[in-house]
Amino acid sequence: MNIYKPAGFWIRLGAALLDYIIVSVPLLLIYWLITGKDPNDSMFISLVVLLYSILLPMFWRGYLIGKRICGIRIVKKDGSQVSLLTMFLRVIVAGLVYCITFGLGLIASLILIAVREDKRTLHDLIAGTYVTYATPGEEELNADEEIRKSE
């Protein structure tokens, strides 16, 4: 496994905040304007954000809007594009782990990203992914270069 250009904590946090501002806040506001109900109690909003988090990276080469703006993306640990199963593991299963551990899993992720050279968090380890600065196709070029160097 060759982790190429891993993205650290601050850039990932920035991307998550951008996603919240660009995706969640408008959804919450629209929901509130249309229904007049508290959007924090809405399963609809949760479902839309969940589908966004799982499906968009599959169709947009590992990018979510915030990650795209920050120039980072999610890839499998071999550098290939994420799949439905990968994103399911990353979002749903890891989310359950974070809930079941009452946030201790999140603390573990913060420690992992700080101490691991590859910057992989708990949800990355569960899903077999990492977050990289590499653009689509760049990992393949790097892998080819590594092969040539070893010959």
Can you lay out the helices and strands and say which pair or pack?
Blueprint: H1 9-35, H2 43-59, H3 65-70, E1 73-76, H4 84-100, H5 104-115, H6 122-127, E2 129-132, H7 138-150
Antiparallel strand pairs: 1-2
Helix pairs in contact: 2-4
What does this structure look like?
This protein is mainly alpha-helical. It has one domain. The protein has 7 helices and 2 strands; from the N terminus they run αααβαααβα. It has a two-stranded antiparallel sheet. Helix 2 packs across helix 4. The longest helix is centred in the N-terminal third of the chain and has 27 residues. The chain is globular, with a radius of gyration of 17 Å. The two termini are 18 Å apart. The mean pLDDT is 90.
Mean pLDDT: 90
The SS-based structural class is mainly alpha
Give the total of domains: 1
Query: If you compute it from the alpha carbons, what radius of gyration comes out, rounded to the nearest whole angstrom?
Result: 17 Å
| Unreliable stretches covering 5 or more consecutive residues | none
Shape verdict: globular
Number of strands: 2
Share of helix among residues?
A: 55-70%
What is the spatial order of strands in the main beta sheet? 1-2
Measure the end-to-end span: 18 Å
Strand share of the residues? 5-15%
Listing every helix as H and every strand as E from the N terminus to the C terminus, the arrangement reads HHHEHHHEH
Keywords: Cell membrane, Membrane, Transmembrane, Transmembrane helix
Subcellular location: Cell membrane
InterPro entries: Pra-immunoreactive, RDD
Membrane topology: Multi-pass membrane protein
